[in-house]
Automatic annotation (TrEMBL):
<keyword id="KW-0732">Signal</keyword>
<keyword id="KW-0326">Glycosidase</keyword>
<dbReference type="InterPro" id="IPR012341">
    <property type="entry name" value="6hp_glycosidase-like_sf"/>
</dbReference>
<feature type="active site" description="Nucleophile">
    <location>
        <position position="130"/>
    </location>
</feature>
<dbReference type="InterPro" id="IPR002037">
    <property type="entry name" value="Glyco_hydro_8"/>
</dbReference>
<dbReference type="InterPro" id="IPR006311">
    <property type="entry name" value="TAT_signal"/>
</dbReference>
<keyword id="KW-0378">Hydrolase</keyword>
<keyword id="KW-0136">Cellulose degradation</keyword>
<keyword id="KW-0624">Polysaccharide degradation</keyword>
<keyword id="KW-0119">Carbohydrate metabolism</keyword>
<comment type="similarity">
    <text>Belongs to the glycosyl hydrolase 8 (cellulase D) family.</text>
</comment>
<dbReference type="GO" id="GO:0030245">
    <property type="term" value="P:cellulose catabolic process"/>
</dbReference>
<dbReference type="InterPro" id="IPR019834">
    <property type="entry name" value="Glyco_hydro_8_CS"/>
</dbReference>
<dbReference type="InterPro" id="IPR008928">
    <property type="entry name" value="6-hairpin_glycosidase_sf"/>
</dbReference>
<dbReference type="GO" id="GO:0008810">
    <property type="term" value="F:cellulase activity"/>
</dbReference>
<dbReference type="Pfam" id="PF01270">
    <property type="entry name" value="Glyco_hydro_8"/>
</dbReference>
<protein>
    <recommendedName>
        <fullName>Glucanase</fullName>
        <ecNumber>3.2.1.-</ecNumber>
    </recommendedName>
</protein>
């Protein structure tokens, strides 16, 4: 697969990923091997996981989104399960998975209701495909880490449900709908670039019958080549794809790059990608603002920036992107996480550190 910019896919896969070790996302958290020419990364610090769990994991097994009125959602459960595996905490993993099964898996189609509120329970039964992917990937990693076939069986069931209901063909590409309901507008699809969780997709492609997931990964790279808007050439949080393969910025959502799309370079890094082509838009944005007062959002295509600054977790992603774009990590200053740092910022910071470890570079 070759991007419009002439960058071949083989140039973007290096090290453990090219050796096939990423099949279950094992390289993503520095658990097996560093890339060629780098020092083996240290295992994820279990103390870091415990600090995370103390802040955001409740005894019943739900992750609290402290920046969003204390709700819980499938995304948070997936992130929590991934970090619990990386931290070697099977008891916490089982609490997270147990709550997810009991409370969120109420749809009857094998997918996860995405939103739960403390005062109303399940508040939206629609699924969010990124949450489903994160949970399934965490289950595959848990199965490999703890040699537990039940986790693998549960993961495969979610992967099959996703493939049957959410993977669709459009404009010659295989894409993933953000949810079962609400993302088809006539002959146009509404997509979210940050729902391409590349290491999870790679893990699913390695399962029996996973060929469509491999196509999804290839299509994600094509879309990231096309979906470049404004002076910084950034992807939007929400985009459209019509039947001819033309991409645009979605109506009905904020026309911006921001809290969703900041995860695009993070997921590429977690999958072992190093091609500067995919990281340069994000490093360019960070460099424009001296790596400190980087705006949280950028309007597209106009380029107007918000006065709200990027969070610590977002800055950690930008530091990683600058390193991979060849700009050097010193281009971005990442302050320590504050004692009251919210769930999303803290999660981005943890995942960025894990990606840096897996790539053998300083976080």
């Amino acid at each position: 697969m070759t991007s419009p910019a002439g960058t071949s896919r083989r140039d973007m896969l290096t090290g453990a990923a090219s050796l096939g070790l990423a099949a279950f996302g094992l390289t993503a958290f520095g658990l097996t091997a560093a890339l060629p020419g780098t020092v083996r990364a240290a295992p994820y610090d279990g103390n870091a996981w415990r600090r995370y769990a103390e802040r955001f994991l409740l005894p019943e097994g739900r992750i609290v989104d402290t920046g969003n009125k204390g709700i819980s959602h499938s995304e948070g459960q997936g992130y929590g399960m991934l970090l619990a595996v990386a931290g070697g905490d099977r008891a916490a993993f089982d609490r997270l998975w147990g709550w997810t099964q009991r409370v969120l898996m109420v749809r009857g189609d094998g997918l996860v209701a995405w939103r739960w509120t403390p005062d109303g329970g399940v508040a939206d039964r629609n699924n969010a495909s990124d949450g489903d992917m994160l949970i399934a990937w965490a289950l595959l990693r848990a199965a490999e880490t703890w040699q537990a076939e039940a986790y693998r069986t549960a993961a495969i069931a979610i992967v099959k449900a996703l493939a049957s209901g959410l993977l669709v063909e459009q404009g010659g590409l295989t894409v993933v709908l953000p949810g079962r309901d609400g993302f088809r507008k006539g002959d146009t699809l509404v997509l979210n670039p940050s729902y391409w969780i590349f290491p999870a997709i790679r893990a699913f492609a390695a399962l029996p019958g996973g060929e469509r997931w491999g196509k999804l990964s290839d299509s994600g790279l094509v879309l990231l080549s096309k979906a470049r808007f404004g002076g910084f050439q950034l992807p939007p949080d929400w985009m459209t794809l019509d039947a001819s393969g033309t991409v645009g910025i979605a109506e009905g959502f904020k026309k911006q790059y921001g809290y969703d799309a900041v995860r695009v370079p993070l997921y590429l890094a977690l999958d072992g990608y190093r091609d500067p082509y995919y990281f340069r838009p994000f490093s360019t944005l960070a460099a424009k603002y001296g790596g400190k007062a980087v705006p949280a959002t950028v309007s597209l295509p106009g380029g107007t920036t918000t006065q709200v600054a990027a969070s610590v977790g977002m800055l950690a992603v930008y530091r990683l992107a600058c390193q991979l774009a060849g700009a050097g990590g010193e281009a971005v200053t990442v302050p320590p996480l504050a004692p009251d740092e919210d769930y999303y910022s803290t999660t981005l910071a943890h995942l960025s550190a894990l990606a840096a470890q897996s790539l053998g570079i300083a976080p």
